[in-house]
Each structure stands twice: as C-alpha cells, then as structure tokens.
C-alpha cells in the first residue's frame, strides 16, 4: 500500500468540491453511463442458475 501511495490520509479529504456548475453539459455523461449499463447487462446470462446453501442445484 505504501509503495504505490495507497494509504489514505486525512489531507486527501480536505478541500473537496461539492458545488454545482450549470455550465457542464450532463448529456455526454448520461450517454456513457447508459452505454456502460447496457454493456454490463449484456454480459449477464439469459438464465440464472439457483443453488442451495448446501451447494445443490435447485434449477433455473
């Protein structure tokens, strides 16, 4: 963690911005999020298998 600078420090959380900029066009962000949503869901199988807690197949 230290080698790659992944240790969280209190200084990181200071000075964040939580405002709103009306000049930013949200349409492009929306387009990419919709594309990511569709792509992610296209990776799901058409049928979901169900398994019991004892690892026995229940069905689809």
Summary tags:
60 residues; alpha+beta; two-stranded antiparallel ribbon; 1 helix; 8% strand; flat
The overall strand count is 2
Which percent band covers the strand fraction?
Answer: 5-15%
Please state the overall shape, judged from the principal axes of the Cα atoms: flat
What's the story with the biggest beta sheet? 2 strands, antiparallel
Structural class, from helix and strand content?
Answer: alpha+beta
Radius of gyration: 22 Å
Which sequence of SSEs, written as H and E, runs from N to C? HEE
Look at the structure and give the mean pLDDT. 83
Strand order of the largest sheet: 1-2
Percentage of residues in helical conformation = 25-40%
Whole-Å distance between the termini? 42 Å
User: Unreliable runs, pLDDT <50, ≥5 residues?
Assistant: none
The helix count comes to 1
Keywords: Heme, Iron, Metal-binding, Oxidoreductase, Peroxidase
Binding site for heme b: 41
GO molecular function: heme binding; metal ion binding; peroxidase activity
Verbal overview:
By secondary structure, this protein is an alpha+beta fold. 27% of the residues lie in helices and 8% in strands. The chain has one helix spanning 27-42; strands at residues 50-51, 57-59. A two-stranded antiparallel sheet has the order 1-2. 0% of the residues are buried. The mean pLDDT is 83.
Q: How would you briefly describe this protein structure?
A:
By secondary structure, the protein is of the alpha+beta class. The protein has one helix and two strands; from the N terminus they run H-E-E. The protein has a two-stranded antiparallel sheet with strand order 1-2.
């Amino acid at each position: 963690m230290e080698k790659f600078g992944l240790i969280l420090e209190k200084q990181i959380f200071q000075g964040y911005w939580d405002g709103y900029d009306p000049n930013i066009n949200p349409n492009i962000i929306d387009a990419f999020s919709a594309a990511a949503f569709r792509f992610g869901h296209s990776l799901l199988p058409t049928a979901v298998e169900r398994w019991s807690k004892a690892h026995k197949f229940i069905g689809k």
